Amino acid sequence: MNRKIIVSASAVLISIGIAALSTAWAQTATPPAGKKFPTPTVAIVDINQIMQTSEAAKSIRSQLDKARAGFQQTLQSKNDEFRKMEDDLQRQREVLSPEAFQQKQKEFQQKVADAQRETQDRRNKSEEALGKAQLQVETALNQIVDQIAKEQGITLVLTRQAALHFEPEMDITGEVVKRLNAKLPSVTLAFPK
Question: 0.90 cut: is pTM over it?
Answer without folding.
Answer: no
